[in-house]
Amino acid sequence: MTAAEVLHFWFEETQPAQCPDRNAVLGRPSTAAEIEFLRTPGSAF
What we know:
Layout: H1 3-13, H2 23-26, H3 32-38
């Protein structure tokens, strides 16, 4: 698998809710549940 394929999978094929900390980078709005999750200690990178 090439680096481009890995990035495509990571950013396009996974469910947005699996990694809500990337929404801002991708220009996606976060849901209220995602925002609450990100407030939990240890939830983001």
